[in-house]
């Protein structure tokens, strides 16, 4: 993509005596932000891990929220040292299971269509930067019928490092032909928030209800309880 509305992505301008940040690109995480999939990930992981004799509580599964699936499996494999299945097989089974669950039970998060329409109507470039494998991302976008809403879709599966490394956000900004300094990221996890901040983007976090008191979210530029709470007022605040 090139410039939008005749404005270069790297352009900033002065409004009176104040310098205004030219945010004209938005990049979304997917799981737990656009689709209510985090509970389904938890169930899928606990079911598959139980086949190798590993019992994970919901609290333990939350420890690896935001990481790539292979990194989650590697983390627990190093801890529990099972040998009945390879880490690669466990990873594949988890992805297959969560894909099945999302396609049968997954629902869009509150405000999903509102937020996509909000930025599209204002001429923003819109991207998706997810830790999930591309096969799952495409399944979710098709399931929710929102694939056409995105100008770029990037998976950390193809990056050398996953979140909290900024690689997937930088790659998505590159696909959008956008300067990271002109990008706004939406996240639901601490891991994702750190990745977007490391990419030098403004970050809005919309955590799950039980995670809203997490002290680390103070690093975000804005914290909301729902995508529906974001509007022109919040956008202008982020541009100051």
Notes on the protein architecture:
The chain has helices at residues 38-50, 58-62, 69-80, 87-105, 112-121, 134-144, 167-175, 190-198, 232-238; strands spanning 13-15, 18-20, 25-28, 125-130, 152-155, 183-187, 202-205, 222-223. The chain is an alpha/beta fold. The longest helix has 19 residues, at 87-105. It is 40% helix and 13% strand. The protein has two domains: 25-36 and 107-239, Rossmann fold; 40-105. A hairpin with a 2-residue loop joins strand 1 (13-15) and strand 2 (18-20). Helix 1 (38-50) crosses helix 4 (87-105), helix 3 (69-80) crosses helix 4 (87-105) and helix 4 (87-105) runs parallel beside helix 6.
Question: What's the short story on this structure?
Answer:
With 240 residues, the protein is an alpha/beta fold. It contains 9 helices and 8 strands. It has a 6-stranded parallel β-sheet with strand order 5-4-3-6-7-8, sandwiched between helices.
